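Worked example 3 (structure in, sequence out).
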């Protein structure tokens, strides 16, 4: 039981790091952009921006396909949503038993940043343009645009203006590979 909490805490830390990075990338928004997003939020209707929740896309059944029948986890509490973006995360870990080290386990996660306004859409699109990490590698065949971020071991996918971050593999981000992460992305892409 104690070991499963370590997996959940490890997955939560990975998601917290991702959220922190996302917030840091968006902290450069100037006051005019914030005012524009508030105005856009008051004029847009939620039907124009369908919300995509991470755990409705990435289910336990999906996690078991890549992590095995002992996969555990689910929705992760997230406080980084804003007036412009609905952020949700779903994390699963591999329960390898109480005698195995946490570092020997794999984890799988999906973070979804669904726009609620035009400003949210622009923010997501900017992550695949001027704000894309310099060391990223373009990836074809996933959504409208995609890239691999080797520093964080994440496949970033822009599909229908929603930004998805897919992670799969060892707990340590630098140990993950694009090919391994594509296994999870292939399962999820049609539901995104």
């Amino acid at each position: 039981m104690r070991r499963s909490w370590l997996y959940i805490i490890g997955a939560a830390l990975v998601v917290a790091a991702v959220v922190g990075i996302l917030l840091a990338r968006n902290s450069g928004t100037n006051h005019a952009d914030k005012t524009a997003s508030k105005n856009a939020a008051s004029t847009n209707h939620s039907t124009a921006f369908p919300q995509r929740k991470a755990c409705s896309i990435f289910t336990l059944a999906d996690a078991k396909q890549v992590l095995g029948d002992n996969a555990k986890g689910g929705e992760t509490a997230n406080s980084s949503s804003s007036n412009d973006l609905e952020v949700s995360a779903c994390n699963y870990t591999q329960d390898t038993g109480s005698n195995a080290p946490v570092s020997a386990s794999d984890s799988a996660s999906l973070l979804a940043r669904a726009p609620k306004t035009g400003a949210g859409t622009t923010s997501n699109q900017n992550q695949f343009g001027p704000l894309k990490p310099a060391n990223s590698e373009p990836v074809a065949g996933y959504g409208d645009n995609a890239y691999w971020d080797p520093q964080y071991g994440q496949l970033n996918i822009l599909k229908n203006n929603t930004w998805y971050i897919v992670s799969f593999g060892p707990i340590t981000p630098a140990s993950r590979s694009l090919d391994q992460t594509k296994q999870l992305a292939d399962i999820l892409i049609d539901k995104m």
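Notes: Confidence is low (pLDDT under 50) at residues 1-47. The first helix runs from residue 2 to 26.
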